Structures are given as structure tokens and as C-alpha cells.
Protein: GST-like protein
Amino acid sequence: MIDLHYVRTSNGLKIAIMLEEIELDYRIIEYDIFAGDHLKPQFKAINPNHKLPAIVDHAPEDGEGAMPIFETGAILLYLAEKSGRLIPSAPRRRMEALQWLAWQISGLGPMLGQGYHFARYAPEGQDYGIARYTREARRLLGVLNYRLSDQPFLAGEYSIADIACWPWLQNVGNLDIDRAEFPAIQRWWDGIAARPAVQRVVRSSTTEVPTAYVQRRMSLTPAQWSNLFGDKLLDAVASPDP
Ligand SMILES: N[C@@H](CCC(=O)N[C@@H](CS)C(=O)NCC(=O)O)C(=O)O
Structure:
């Protein structure tokens, strides 16, 4: 059994989709990040970085007891290796999957994440930040489109690299980017959206993404702000073990 410590965001969706695809037994432990659930001291033992998602595998292969894992790139790789699925076995293709996974976790995710941050939460008049991250998002989408223009999937076959990227392409409209401007991305995105495992996740009441996580502008209360971007976050990292 795997516990999925989950929030309904792009990073959370990656792991919910992976678990549905490989059909391992899992249960969802849902967090409300606006309420600061992820800052609770007991979560530090699972992820000292206090970010979601994370998993705990209660039956790891080494038999040495429950194993917590954080960072979506590491979790996807772990689950691919545990299940023997969704990572190519041919060495060159496998390396392609790892490259595109690294590209997502170091580029596409952080850049779109910052873009969404400025577009959604920053006070009005943050044009420089929005322009900077929108330009970078467009550049990265251009790279993705180029790759997918002669490959059905990022590593030739459907893999953890596609699962890592797909949820991030849902809300590019928040940056005034139309996915349809990138025809190869749109074709790839639609194909993945139609997969039964993906449908199960996006349609399920426990894993669907509610408006609070996707709407274009959001105004937070001071407590929510502190939980997400302010002092509470810093305090959680500095706090001693429970
Ligand atoms: N690099 C991390 C990013 C995780 C991340 O930023 N998660 C967000 C939700 S998508 C989060 O926990 N936000 C709460 C916060 O930043 O306080 C990963 O890939 O797992």
C-alpha cells in the first residue's frame, strides 16, 4: 500500500496519474495548502522540504519498513522502477525519458509555476515578472512542441516524462497562452487526456482540480498568504522534529 500525500495541483496530479496508470494500491491523504496542512511538524519526517506531493511506500522492496519519498521526479522514477512500467527499457530511450523528466522538474514546472504565481497572486503592476515568466513559458512550450512534432511521446513511447509534463499544460491560459498555438503539444495533450487512467484522475471527486487551484486571480487572506509564501513556511522548515 502506498500513501499519497496529495494536493490537487499539477505536481499532485502527476503522481495520482502515475498510480492510476500502474494500478498499485494507494490511498490519498489530502492536504489543504491554503490552511497550511503541509507545514505540520509530523509532515517533516515525510518531506523536510514541506512540499507536496510525497508518498510513503509501506511495502518497499528492501523490506526495511515504510519508506517516504518526496520530489515528484524521484517519486515517478521510483514508481516506474517498482512497477517495471512507464520507463523505456532500451537504454537510449530510457535516457530520453530521464532527460525530459529532468527538463520538466527543473524548467517547465518552476517557470510555469512562477508565471502562475505572478499572474494569480502578485499585486497589480507586476508586469515585469509576468512578462519574464510568460516569455520563458512560451520558449519552453516551443521546445516541447519541437520535440513532439516528430515523436508521439517525449521518449518515443508514453512514459513518466509525459506524465510529468502533461498536468502543467492544463492552465497555460492563465498566462494568455493558447495551447492550440502549439499543434504538436495539442495533439499529444489530447491523446493523454483521453487515457482511461487520466480520465479516472481528472473526473474523480478526490483528485479533480477545484477552481481554487486554477483560477486566474486569487486574493488570499493574510493567514493563507503566510502559509503559502510567508513566515509560517519559514517557521516550518526551521522547527525542530516533533
Ligand atoms: N519540486 C517539487 C515541487 C513541489 C511543490 O512546489 N508543491 C507545491 C504544490 S504543487 C506545494 O507544496 N506548495 C505549497 C507551498 O509551496 O507551500 C516537486 O516536484 O515535488
Q: What stands out?
A: Strands lie at 2-6, 26-30, 54-57, 67-70. The two ends are 25 Å apart (CA to CA). The chain is about 50% helix and 5% strand.
